TrEMBL record:
Keywords: ATP-binding, Cell membrane, Kinase, Membrane, Nucleotide-binding, Phosphoprotein, Transferase, Two-component regulatory system. InterPro entries: BphY/WalK/GraS-like, HATPase_C_sf, HATPase_dom, His_kinase_dom, HisK_dim/P_dom, HisK_dim/P_sf, PAS, PAS-like_dom_sf. PANTHER family: PHOSPHATE REGULON SENSOR PROTEIN PHOR. GO terms for cellular component: plasma membrane. Its EC number is 2.7.13.3. GO terms for molecular function: ATP binding; phosphoprotein phosphatase activity; phosphorelay sensor kinase activity. It catalyses: ATP + protein L-histidine = ADP + protein N-phospho-L-histidine. This is histidine kinase.
């Protein structure tokens, strides 16, 4: 009788242990304290409780790990040693242009970028990390790809693909290279002219008064172009490096009147009539120096690209939540399909005409950056052969970054 009772209890303990090993959650064993297997049963119950706590902690950590992966801004994909996807986060799906969190699928069926597939394959074959900048055609994204070999133990490993989006950095690099190339080209033109004409003068042309005066005028005009280009470049550099505002109250009518006085010789030379339509008591709160760059460039363009005996309208007003200023001319006008591009650095509508008028291709880029620094917006309306109207709008309430 005792033998059968002991065997029954041993079978029950064995069954309980197998269930715990297999991850099941059977009820606790309940034996009398006097039972010879009481302490063993308590120990098995303790193991089950500990395993349950460990599993709970593991699941909590796993959920936290997966959540963290989802919130990462870099693309992450983890592969098991059978080359199957274990997980892929949202950023990876965004970069690849398709769902990559397809657990259990072979990566070769899901990764459709050859360069990335090759890096992964090399990592599986060599057990060495791989690194390369690649372009994902599906999304037109440039990424810095790292494929990492992660050993787990002597028999198991994972492969992790990490993609860093560097599209914006590549675009900035391209813009910087374009800017340097354009600056070099624009500087070369007046410098070449100045060098060539001065060299000719030094070789004997200065002895001819008419030739000397003609060449010196050309050198002077080219030096003005060079000065204007350097000033525009410096203006852009100042905007990028010092965006702070120094605000003060300003009478807009008096401010524009003072600026127009500096353009009097140019206005008289082209016989341009100015119609100033700004109330005498128009008060605004603004950074005077930055606004001056905007107005100077817009008036200068209104004169350069205006016709002889043309007209220039300058109007401004304070409204309920903002104030605006517009400058309208009777000039060449801008084709509709090019109006969005005129604010690009070094963009010219008509290269020959712009060069003839001394344009650097940077003036409106400078205007756009200063308007942006003043939290404003600029719009253009133009008709070829009729003229152009540039309107800038700024908020009435503007924060002083220096305060």
């Amino acid at each position: 009788m005792a033998y059968h009772q002991h065997k029954k209890e041993i079978d029950m303990l064995s069954s309980k242990l197998r269930a715990v090993i297999e991850g099941e959650e059977p009820g606790h064993l309940l034996l009398e304290p006097s039972d010879p297997y009481y302490e063993l049963a308590r120990a098995i119950n303790g193991v089950q409780s500990m395993q349950r706590d460990i599993s709970k902690d593991f699941l909590t950590q796993q959920r936290g790990y997966f959540s963290l992966m989802e919130y990462l801004t870099i693309g992450v994909m983890v592969l098991d040693q059978d080359q199957k996807i274990y997980l892929g986060n949202h950023a990876m799906s965004e970069l690849m242009g398709r769902e990559m969190n397809v657990k259990g699928q072979l990566y070769v069926n899901e990764v459709r970028t050859y360069e990335l597939s090759r890096l992964i394959e090399e990592t599986f074959q060599t057990h060495q990390d791989q690194h390369q900048e690649i372009k994902i055609e599906a999304t037109n994204k440039n990424v810095d790809a790292h494929v990492v070999y992660v050993p787990i133990n002597s028999h198991h490993f994972l492969v992790m693909a990490l993609l860093y989006d560097i599209t914006e950095l590549k675009e900035i690099e391209r813009m910087q290279m374009d800017f340097v190339g354009n600056v070099s080209h624009e500087l070369k033109t007046p410098i070449t002219a100045i060098t060539g004409f001065t060299e000719t003068l030094l070789q004997g042309a200065m002895d001819d008064k008419q030739t000397r005066e003609e060449f010196l005028k050309i050198v002077y005009q080219e030096s003005l172009k060079l000065t204007e280009l350097v000033e525009d470049i410096l203006s852009l550099a100042r905007i990028d490096s010092k965006p702070q505002l120094n605000l003060s109250m300003l009478n807009l009518h008096a401010f524009i009147t003072d600026i127009l006085r500096t353009f009097k010789p140019e206005l008289e030379k082209k016989q341009i009539e100015v119609d100033l339509q700004i109330p005498a008591d128009c008060q605004i709160n603004v950074d005077k120096n930055k606004l001056q760059h905007v107005v100077n460039n817009l008036i200068q363009n209104g004169i350069k690209y205006n016709k002889t005996a043309g007209k220039l309208w300058i109007s401004g007003e304070v409204r309920e939540k903002d104030w605006c200023l517009s400058i309208q001319d009777t000039g060449y006008g801008i084709p509709k399909d090019e109006q969005e591009r005129i604010f690009e650095r070094f963009y010219r509508i008509d290269t020959s005409r712009s060069r003839q008028n001394g344009g650097t291709g940077l003036g409106l880029a400078v205007v756009k950056e200063y308007v942006k620094a003043l939290s404003g917006k600029i719009e253009v309306k133009s008709q070829v052969g009729v003229g152009s109207r540039f309107a800038v709008t700024f908020p009435l309430e503007m924060k002083d970054n220096l305060s």
